[in-house]
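Quick one, tokens below:
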């Protein structure tokens, strides 16, 4: 439960590198996420190149922490993996992204989830910088590193948002 309640978006990182083994664990956790029909529509790009991470900051207005975070993991959707008429890839990729955040917290790493899809300018910019071909869709970026800040635990539980049996009750 600590991995759920303690982590917060980290926007300042130390210069300590993230071990390759830790990145592999994050990716394994991502791929362990549930997906509709077990389609597993995700693909991942691990970006450690400083120039590429800085280029992302020019197309994603909330990504300045990528200048410090030593790793960025880009979660992508591969539409070719879809076998059913209803597409749940957004939920599937969100579950994979959340697993990265939880696994990182367990490893003592800090993260920040940066939304890319459905903002067309962000999708196009990330696609250009990382040479992502059509029809692959960059869904989100997760900044990963050793935190240089420790935001406090937050309790967002709000009983007024809970209903039983029917909405509004």
């Amino acid at each position: 439960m600590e991995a759920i309640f303690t982590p917060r978006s980290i926007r300042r990182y130390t210069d300590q590198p993230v071990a390759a083994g830790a990145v592999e664990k994050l990716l394994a956790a991502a791929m362990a996420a549930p997906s509709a029909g077990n389609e597993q529509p995700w693909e991942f790009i691990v970006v450690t190149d400083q120039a590429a991470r800085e280029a992302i900051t020019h197309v994603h207005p909330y990504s300045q922490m990528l200048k410090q975070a030593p790793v960025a993991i880009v979660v992508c959707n591969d539409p070719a993996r879809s076998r059913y008429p209803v597409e749940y890839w957004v939920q599937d990729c969100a579950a994979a992204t959340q697993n990265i955040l939880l696994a990182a917290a367990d490893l003592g790493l800090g993260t920040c989830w940066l939304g890319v899809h459905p903002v067309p300018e962000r999708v196009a910019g990330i696609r250009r910088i990382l040479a992502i071909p059509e029809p692959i869709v960059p869904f989100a970026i997760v900044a990963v590193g050793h935190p240089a800040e420790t935001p406090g635990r937050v309790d967002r539980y709000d009983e007024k948002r809970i209903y039983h049996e029917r909405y509004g009750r």
